[in-house]
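ligand=IPE
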Amino acid sequence: MPPLAGVAQTGALPAGPSLTGPVPKHVAIIMDGNGRWAASRGLPRAAGHKAGAEAVTRCLRAARANGVDYLTLYAFSSENWRREPSEVADLTGLLRFYLRHKVAELHREKVKIRFVGEVGRFGQDLCAEMARAEALTEGNSGLTLLLALSYGGRSDIVHAARALAQAVQCGDLAPDAITEDMLARYLLTAGVPDPDVIVRTSGEHRLSNFLLWQSAYAELVFLETLWPDFDEDCFTRVLNIYGRRERRFGARPA
Ligand code: IPE
Ligand code: IPE
Ligand code: MG
């Protein structure tokens, strides 16, 4: 098999079955289970990450085919720096490969790419490639793909709080004038609607510091599927589960 076979597999979009409920505008996914996928096959964890990267291509195809506007993928948390340096290097290598070989194709597909997280920690070269990818795709009108890399929800909120504190200190803002919308405008996801649904694969039932502010009213969907096995059918399953949920936002049940 050639390395990262999924890279070349975009092509025509799958038709996608007809869905009954509303399609979420913003789907966010905690892509978990690469290590267990590899272990169950007697493979090194790196093989799981490589297969996980191929699942990203399938997921993106499914999101586009179903008319999702925003797809946020949690690829590396601020806590994932605690992993073995060799595993971090494997993940960084994959990121570099995709930035070099995939961005042009995403651009042709009119995907708008945005990175959220403390991406400076990946070093100057990668950071520059990420900035180039964002600049190249900025004007695209298709799906917006947010890649959460070195992302932490608490840190996101702390940075927003600091920016607001700065404005207060300068005398530009009264503490009482701070609103939820204002704080949201300082988050890394500024301008992006909150996720309608947050999916986590691999059977874990936690957020692991993902979109803590933005998840306030997200529907949570937990799948047993390990991320490298995620495919278009899994995406449809998520949409069907979401479509059956009744969202109330605190109001009286219908
Ligand atoms: C998700 O898979 C990928 C990252 C967190 C980078 P894991 O590497 O966490 O896989 P498991 O949870 O050990 O199976
Ligand atoms: C969460 O998965 C982060 C990503 C999927 C990128 P982890 O595997 O790092 O989360 P924990 O450690 O099980 O909570
Ligand atoms: Mg994990």
